[in-house]
C-alpha cells in the first residue's frame, strides 16, 4: 500500500540566497519597473538563449500572444485560425486581440496544427483570416520553416504560441514566437512572457505596447497599448534562473532518460524528440485508446497524480462553445489520451518504477 501521493508537478524557483545579489542591485539603483537595468539585462540574455535578434518582455505568456497578434493580424478581418487542442489561454489571447478563434484540428502524430490542415481549411471559410496562431505542443519547438513557407504562399500572418519552448528554440525568424515564463515552465520566473522575432520594427512596436504605447523619449502615446511590463523583481528572478539553467536542463534530461528507459517495449509513446532534442516540465505519454481507462484507474489506485494539461480542447469549454470550428475528429480522438505524468526533481527511482508499472 502506498501512503504518499506522487505529485504531478513541483515548480522550483530560485531561493532567497540566489536572489540576494540581484535584490541588492535593485536597492542600489532605486529602479523598480519601467524597463530598468535588470529588465534590460534579462532581455538581452533571454534573446541570446533563444537565438533571437530582438525580444519584448511581457507580464505573462497570454499577453505576449495578444500583443503579437495585435501587431501582426491583418486589419479588417475577423478570424484567427488556431488549433482546438491547446491550453485555453491561447483562445483567450485571440479574443483579447479583438479576433474570433476559428478552431481547427491537429495531427495525431505531432499534436499540432499543421500548414496542410490550415491551408485545407481556407476554402471552407466565408472570408480570409486575419492571422494563424500556431501552438507548440508542450515545449516542442515549432516548425518555423514550414510556417514561413505557409505565410509566403498565403499572405496570412503567423504567430507562434510556444509557451513552454523557451529553452528549445534555436534561432527565431520574422514570425514572432511567444513564450511563457510561468513558474510551471523550465525557464519560469513566477509570471512573465516574451515575444521573440528578427523583425526589429515589430519588436519595437510590441515593446511600446507594453508601456502605454510610448515611443521614444517623449511620454506621448503613439500607438494603443497597455501596461504589460515586468518589474525589476521579476527580472531578478529571471537572471537567477538563467544562472542555474544548465544544471536544471541536465536534471530534466536525466529524468526524461529514466522514463525513456522504463518505457521501452510499452504501448504508450512519448512526443517525438523529447529528452533528445528538447525538455519540458510536463512530460506526457500518449496512451492507446483501448488501454486508457484501465491506465487511469491504475494511476489513481497507486496514488499517482496525473493531468490532461490541455483538457479535451477549447471547444469543450463553455466560454468558447459558440466559436466557429472545422472538423475536429483528430482532436476528439487524441485529447483524452494525452496524459501528463509526474515530472520533477523530487522523483526517486522507486517513484519512477511505481509510475511506469501503471502504463501499458
UniProtKB/TrEMBL annotation:
Coiled coil: none
Molecular-function annotations in GO: transaminase activity
UniProtKB keywords: Aminotransferase, Pyridoxal phosphate, Transferase
Pfam families: DegT_DnrJ_EryC1 (PF01041)
Family the entry assigns: Belongs to the DegT/DnrJ/EryC1 family.
Protein name: DegT/DnrJ/EryC1/StrS family aminotransferase
Amino acid at each position: 500500500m502506498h501512503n504518499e501521493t506522487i505529485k504531478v508537478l513541483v515548480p522550483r524557483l530560485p531561493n532567497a540566497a540566489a536572489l540576494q545579489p540581484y535584490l541588492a542591485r535593485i536597492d542600489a539603483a532605486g529602479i523598480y519597473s519601467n524597463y530598468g537595468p535588470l529588465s534590460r539585462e534579462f532581455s538581452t540574455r533571454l534573446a541570446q538563449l533563444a537565438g533571437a535578434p530582438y525580444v519584448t518582455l511581457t507580464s505573462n505568456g497570454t499577453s505576449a500572444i495578444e500583443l503579437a497578434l495585435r501587431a501582426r493580424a491583418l486589419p479588417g478581418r475577423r478570424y484567427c485560425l488556431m488549433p482546438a487542442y491547446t491550453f485555453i489561454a491561447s483562445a483567450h489571447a485571440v479574443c483579447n486581440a479583438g479576433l474570433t478563434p476559428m478552431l481547427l484540428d491537429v495531427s495525431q502524430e505531432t499534436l499540432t496544427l499543421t500548414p496542410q490542415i490550415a491551408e485545407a481549411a481556407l476554402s471552407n471559410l466565408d472570408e480570409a483570416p486575419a492571422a494563424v496562431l500556431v501552438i507548440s505542443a508542450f515545449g516542442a519547438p515549432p516548425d518555423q520553416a514550414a510556417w514561413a513557407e505557409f505565410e509566403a504562399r498565403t499572405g496570412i500572418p503567423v504567430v507562434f504560441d510556444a509557451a513552454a519552448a523557451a529553452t528549445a528554440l534555436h534561432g527565431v525568424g520574422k514570425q514572432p514566437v511567444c513564450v511563457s515564463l510561468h513558474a510551471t515552465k523550465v525557464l519560469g520566473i513566477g509570471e512573465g512572457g516574451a515575444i521573440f522575432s528578427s523583425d526589429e520594427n515589430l519588436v519595437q512596436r510590441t515593446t511600446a505596447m507594453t508601456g502605454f504605447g510610448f515611443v521614444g523619449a517623449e511620454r506621448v502615446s503613439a500607438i494603443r497599448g497597455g501596461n504589460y511590463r515586468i518589474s525589476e523583481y521579476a527580472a531578478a528572478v529571471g537572471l537567477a534562473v538563467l544562472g542555474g539553467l544548465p544544471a536544471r536542463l541536465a536534471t530534466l534530461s536525466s529524468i526524461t532518460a529514466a522514463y525513456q528507459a522504463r518505457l521501452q517495449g510499452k504501448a504508450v509513446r512519448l512526443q517525438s524528440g523529447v529528452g533528445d532534442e528538447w525538455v519540458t516540465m510536463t512530460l506526457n505519454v500518449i496512451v492507446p485508446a483501448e488501454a486508457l481507462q484501465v491506465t487511469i484507474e491504475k494511476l489513481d489506485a497507486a496514488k499517482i497524480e496525473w493531468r490532461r494539461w490541455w483538457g479535451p480542447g477549447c471547444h469543450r469549454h463553455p466560454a468558447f462553445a459558440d466559436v466557429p470550428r472545422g472538423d475536429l475528429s483528430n482532436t476528439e480522438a487524441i485529447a483524452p489520451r494525452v496524459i501528463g505524468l509526474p515530472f520533477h526533481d523530487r522523483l526517486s527511482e522507486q517513484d519512477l518504477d511505481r509510475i511506469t508499472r501503471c502504463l501499458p
